[in-house]
């Protein structure tokens, strides 16, 4: 006998009951919960829904039938969490092959796909994600450039015929940086291929794409990138040490501290309002500023000190045999002098400043992560108090400053909302505290004035909702002046190619197709949020 129909009915029944509970404002009698679980247990055993049987059995063991208790909604949600998850997975994955996730921990490669043929984009993104890689997809060249500089992908796949020219884009993002680039094209003639290679493409793949071969070729490029990352110690653009070498030097300094009791200080510097430079004068000018800044730092420190490029426009410094007060003094002097330097772009002239945070290491048990975290807290404080200043974290109470990231979930499905909030709550992020809120629809979201909360915002929007759907919200959000501090992840239906196309055109930062696996989504959110900060 086939149980498919009954399985679907049972899952529907579970979802309906849970939705009804979660949307009511009343307390729920224990007896009601007990009876519900009992009935689910009976049916699920019969129709061979083993996972649900197991979960309901475990839940029933935890509550007593005649306990005189009432459940609050939050408490009940927590209690039924595993049941919610498993229903969702059953419902969404009955026809899908379950793909084993590749190692999700550690450094998952990030691939940027840029193609204005949305059907192709979807196919490539799906294929790459099946491999366990993270993909950031994009149809608009301007957005692509922005994402490239924000997210530093490990491989770029760009279409030759991209409107306004894929080659130009390649050229722009390729200057001075090592990131493997694959160009795709419908045409495969010699001229086009040569054009692509001349402009820096590392590989050229003809459409229609043979997916299996495509994956192998992408993998090869990712391996090259990994070898590059692990063998090179200098940052290509700025010619100061890279982040990897910071670990090495930090360890050496710790050894030195243990051996000869010589303490040291570590600093994090971040250029102020650097985005404005890119926006006003273009990324090439931005790159020039980074180079000048790095060069200036190198020239103004002692030969026993080190400069590292820590991230996009962030630099780390290690001052040997130096306490935090001395380091703050040195950096404040550098800041004063450097901010007087006038940059030129065409006829425009501009000056820049930076903010900094310092941490004094005089205990050999301090880890690099914690030292950086403390320096970052001071940096954050310097930004908060008006930028263009350098603080020491040693004089602050540690752990007080945390970046707050506002995450909003807007979805009309109570189950999905519950799940997402749970997933977000369970995430462990180094530098961020998440301020999570869920909304039933776009109207409620805007009425709450949620976007007035200070700090960065990350929105997870359901594409289809009865009252103001995700696309409308996205459109409104992207019209705001402060749109740059808001990132959007769109949840769309697997078949709604038009919605995906519109979402990307409107400036969504990423999309995930429903049905999605919770683990997969968790990894993606974690990665996006971590990269955002
Ligand atoms: P704040 O004072 O708060 O630090 O403001 P900000 O604008 O400097 O900070 P934000 O983090 O908003 O922007 C940093 C920008 O730096 C965003 C990113 O596009 C740009 N960026 C990162 N890496 C590079 C790079 O290698 N070259 C160029 N040109 N820009 C980069
Ligand atoms: Mg900055």
From TrEMBL:
Entries under Gene3D superfamilies matching the protein: 3.30.70.270, 3.40.50.2300
Keyword set, alphabetical order: Hydrolase, Phosphoprotein
Residues modified as 4-aspartylphosphate: 159, 462
Top class in the EC scheme: hydrolase
Aminoacyl-tRNA synthetase as UniProt keyword: no
GO molecular function, one term: diguanylate cyclase activity
One Pfam family it belongs to: Response_reg
Enzyme Commission numbers on file: 3.5.1.44
GO biological process: phosphorelay signal transduction system
Sequence ranges assigned to domain Response regulatory in this UniProt record: 110-222, 406-529
Keyword Cell membrane: no
Domain GGDEF: 262-395
PANTHER family to which the protein is assigned, alphabetical: DIGUANYLATE CYCLASE DGCM-RELATED, REGULATORY COMPONENTS OF SENSORY TRANSDUCTION SYSTEM
Protein name in UniProt: Protein-glutamate methylesterase/protein-glutamine glutaminase
High-level lineage: Bacteria, Bacillati, Bacillota, Bacilli, Bacillales
């Amino acid at each position: 006998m086939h149980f498919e129909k009954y399985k679907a009915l049972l899952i529907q029944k579970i979802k309906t009951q849970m939705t009804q509970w979660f949307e009511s404002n009343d307390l729920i009698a224990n007896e009601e919960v007990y009876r519900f679980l009992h009935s689910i247990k009976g049916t699920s055993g019969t129709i061979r829904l083993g996972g649900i049987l197991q979960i309901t059995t475990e839940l029933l063991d935890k509550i007593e039938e005649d306990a005189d208790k009432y459940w609050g909604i939050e408490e009940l949600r927590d209690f039924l969490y595993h049941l919610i998850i498993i229903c969702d997975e059953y419902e969404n994955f009955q026809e899908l092959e379950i793909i084993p996730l590749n190692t999700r921990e550690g450094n998952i490669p990030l691939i940027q796909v840029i193609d204005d043929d949305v059907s192709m984009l979807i196919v490539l993104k799906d294929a790459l994600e099946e491999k366990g890689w993270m993909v950031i997809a994009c149809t608009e060249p301007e957005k692509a450039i922005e994402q490239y500089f924000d997210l530093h992908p490990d491989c770029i796949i760009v279409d030759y015929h991209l409107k306004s020219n894929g080659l130009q884009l390649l050229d722009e993002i390729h200057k001075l940086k090592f990131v493997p680039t694959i160009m795709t094209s419908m045409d495969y003639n010699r001229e086009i291929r040569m054009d692509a290679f001349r402009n820096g493409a590392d590989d050229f793949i003809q459409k229609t794409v043979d997916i299996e071969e495509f994956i192998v070729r992408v993998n090869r490029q990712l391996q090259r990138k990994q070898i590059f990352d692990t063998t090179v110690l200098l940052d290509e653009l700025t010619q100061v040490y890279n982040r990897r070498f910071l670990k090495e030097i930090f360890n050496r300094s710790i050894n030195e501290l243990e051996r000869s009791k010589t303490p040291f200080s570590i600093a994090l510097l971040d250029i102020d309002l650097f985005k404005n430079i890119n926006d006003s004068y273009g990324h090439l000018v931005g790159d020039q500023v980074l180079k000048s800044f790095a060069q200036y730092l190198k020239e103004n420190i002692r030969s026993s000190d080190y400069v590292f490029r820590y991230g996009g426009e962030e630099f780390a410094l290690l001052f040997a045999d130096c306490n935090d007060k001395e380091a703050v003094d040195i950096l404040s002097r550098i800041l004063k002098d450097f901010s007087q330097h006038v940059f030129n772009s065409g006829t425009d002239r501009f000056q820049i400043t930076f903010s900094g945070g310092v941490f004094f290491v005089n205990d050999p048990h301090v880890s690099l992560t914690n030292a950086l975290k403390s320096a970052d807290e001071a940096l954050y404080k310097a930004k908060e108090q008006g930028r263009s200043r350098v603080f020491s974290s040693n004089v602050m109470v540690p752990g007080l400053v945390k970046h707050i990231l506002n995450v909003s979930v807007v979805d009309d499905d109570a189950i999905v909302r519950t799940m997402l909030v749970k997933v977000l709550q369970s995430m462990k992020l180094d530098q961020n505290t998440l301020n999570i809120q869920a909304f039933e629809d776009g109207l409620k979201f805007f009425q709450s004035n949620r976007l007035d909360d200070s700090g960065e915002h990350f929105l997870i929007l359901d594409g289809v909702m009865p009252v103001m759907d995700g696309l409308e919200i996205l459109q409104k959000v992207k019209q705001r002046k402060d749109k740059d501090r808001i990132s959007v992840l769109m949840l769309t239906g697997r078949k709604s190619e038009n919605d995906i196309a519109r979402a990307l055109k409107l400036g969504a930062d990423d999309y995930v197709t429903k049905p999605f696996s919770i683990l997969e989504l968790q990894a993606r959110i974690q990665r996006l949020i971590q990269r955002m900060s």
